[in-house]
Amino acid sequence: MAHGREAGNKVYLDKEALLRGRDYFFHVPWPTDVPEEERSCGAYRYPIVPSFQHWSFPHDSPPPGWSFNPDLTANVASLFPVPSISSVSQAVRDRDGSCRLSGYQDGIERAHLCPRSEVQWFTQQEMDRYNISGSLVGLGLVDDTANALALRSDIHLSFDAGRFVFTRKRDQWVSHFLTPTSNLGPEYHNTTVEIPSSVHPAFLLARLAWAIFPGIRNFLIRGEKRLVTLRQETGSAWDVKELDREHLCCVLGIQPRGRSNSPTKRQREADTTGGATDASATASKRARLHLAESPQPAEPLARTHSPPATTPELCNADAGPTPSPSQPSEPPVLHTNGETDERRRIGALRQSALKAQRPINPGLLCCDYDAAEVANAAGLEGPRTFGGAHLCMECLGMEYRDEEGCAPTPIPTMRDGGFDFPAPD
């Protein structure tokens, strides 16, 4: 590790020392088989593995302090019975007894080390060689007890979010938090953890790599071309390619542009460019907002003595013909262009709702509905008994009738500004 990007002073520090400089650069030496002329061109540009999906698991060369004992699973299989797929979670909870990080026994869950989402990588890398059960196939390959730990539910969420991992330090298993947290990190960072012997270290290393790889994405897409190692789609071969930022974003599944691809945003942009559409929508919004802010109507109502809430208009001259009373219809769509049109629209909606409540059998109507519509369209006022409307409250749908001809429920009528409740027969 050196201070310079291309060259610099090599840093010599003890294992316990802290790096106090601002920027450091990791320099990999040139391979021994490269000619001297090529080495003199500058620092060696070593290929970078861009993501976990392109990482080749080091089966034969584990990191220092890690051991992939090939006989481990064989010994464990004789001590721990292989559970069925349906009972793996319970088997993990019974095996661990408590959360491996906190020691809590309440709310513990099975946490996968190599995630279920990486079953394709798991299969291609032949990670099933570390499973205890040899009968797992397909998507179930990752559901082996050797690939799981018991964790408390909130710690499990943090674990799946990649906020911490389990790793080797001083020949011990410890928890290492990769991102700052409010509570779990300060409480459990560098905590010694007892890992069950039936959990294979290969899966812990896979989880460590899975959590670290997202941290190099910003480095890869800063704009410079990068030399990367990519796994081919078929087979187990890898290619070394130099990719620019756009192609690296495609490899990493990142949108190359910083703008949002939200459909709502695209719709807003399309409306803005449309001009007329945006202006119409703005005018409609302003009309509704103005109505909400001004409780007093700008124009006097046609029937000041008949409140709209109790005697809604039957029809509107702009609403078109009204369907048959026996067939409830959808409310007409009116264009709002001010407070008057808004009141008409509300009246039409109320009218449609009342029509839908009327008896299905037209024979139960006591009023002439067609004549009432003609009178209302002509601007005539209805009987005072009906509150200025042209239909009684029963025909407007304000009662529930028995379709078999039973007596209707008594309906209140308006008399002298108040409601008169007739006595039952």
Describe the overall structure.
The protein is α+β, with helices and mostly antiparallel strands and 425 residues long. Among the domains are: 36-51 and 221-252, no CATH class; 55-213, no CATH class. The chain contains 13 helices and 8 strands. The chain has helices at residues 36-39, 72-79, 88-96, 119-124, 153-160, 184-188, 201-212, 217-220, 245-252, 263-274, 276-293, 339-357, 369-377, and strands at residues 108-112, 148-152, 164-169, 172-177, 226-231, 238-243, 413-415, 418-420. A two-stranded antiparallel sheet has the order 1-2. A two-stranded antiparallel ribbon has the order 3-4. It is elongated and about 105 Å long. The model is unreliable at 71-75, 275-329, 331-336 and 398-419 (pLDDT under 50).
Total number of helices: 13
Order of helices and strands: HHHEHEHEEHHHEEHHHHHEE
The radius of gyration is 38 Å
* Spatial order of strands in the largest sheet: 1-2
Distance, first to last CA: 101 Å
Fraction of residues in helix? 25-40%
Number of strands: 8
Structural class: alpha+beta
How much of the residues is beta strand, in percent? 5-15%
Shape: elongated
Given as residue ranges, the uncertain stretches (5+ residues, pLDDT < 50) are 71-75, 275-329, 331-336, 398-419
Biggest pleated-sheet summary:
2 strands, antiparallel
Q: Quick check: average pLDDT?
A: 74
